[in-house]
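A protein record in our archive is deliberately plain, so that people and models can read it alike. The record that follows is passed on verbatim for readers who wish to inspect the format.
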Amino acid sequence: MRDLSLLVILVWIIIQAFRRPWIGILGWTWMSIMNPHQLSWALKTMPFAAAIGGATLIGLFITKDRRDYSLNRENVTLMLFMMWMCITLPFSMLFDESFELWKRVMKIDLMILVTMVLLHSKRHMMLLTWVLVISIGFFGVKGGAFTVLTGGSYKVWGPENTYIEGNNEIALAIVIVIPLMRFLQMQMKAKWAKTTMTICMVLMAMAALGSHSRGALLAIAAMALVLWWRGKNKMAGAIGMVVVAVALLSLMPAEWWERMNTIKTYQQDESAMGRINAWGMAWNLAKSNFFGGGFMIWTGPVFAIYAPDPNDVHAAHSIYFMVLGELGFIGLFLFLTLFTMVWFTAGNLRVKARGKPETQWLSDLGGMLQVSLAGYAVGGAFLSLSYWDLPYNVLVLAVVGQRWLQRKEWLREKEEPVIYWPEFLKKRFQKKKIVPLS
């Protein structure tokens, strides 16, 4: 029954994608982030994501819906980032393995660009946010309940055969989504809905802690710091955060505390030292190879050449050193530039849309996007999720929100009459919009 229900939903999305490609984009995002077919019995190997993506691309050119092909600094930088991946591909140290990941990353980034073309309304932004929240919230809420029921004695893991299968990866995904849940809660009117979302956010936080990921703990602390700094009553905010932190952390077992304490004594922790060795390998490789080493370089032969300890082979465990080792210093520069731009775009939304009834929701969105980015920036320093869709969907929300705000301001200026008066008459007509003669 579960497989049949999922099949009906996916077929409906494919059909709708031809006529309403924005529906295809939401379906693609759902498939990419949540991978619902991995929860089925018979649909795991069927190429639904490719079918939805293909239908959406066809719909992009035949739809009568609005499309926005305008360029902005974010999509231009993303295209430059993609171009650099293409330039570096022939220089990959392990070409066959690199080519496979290159194809996957190109598909993801292409659909992100298509998303920015097709989405343009408040409804689209709200639906995309809901898709992201439901996709990760399904695992986070369930994982949080599991952590509470087991006293945190077992790790929370992500869905198999996905980008977020590991405990560290699912933890970072949960951390990024919690602020988006808070944004949705801020738009809710019903008390029961707000209460339900609060419970879900608490369970999500418990799931992140239950992953036993030290990076997730640091990411949560970074987001809490941003929220506290933004709060109007800092004393009350600090007390509230301390109370919630004590309540959540009191549920965690002794082995969890022992693992978190290794943050202070990382020199004695093999896992932490292995990550530092991998970072040293990435640094040495990037210095020796202008184009980087290509994708999938975290292997014994490459470590034997560039790592400080050639026998300690680890994954990158850092979005920054992952990009540095695979795409070189230029790749890292483009990656950092891209998300720095997103941070400032979200901040612009938070400031410019604030205090106006018709745009306050966009100010709330901008603020929460910055909190998500803070979690990604800190948690990502210890996790390998440089190319996964979710952070780039945060980029999409910021870009589409900025376009929506600019369009709103342009329409307001177009509708409001402007009366030109000499400067000496300005004070007599303060209730009117006056532009003095220059």
Notes: The first strand starts at residue 419 and ends at 421. The chain is about 70% helix and 0% strand. The chain has a mean pLDDT of 87.
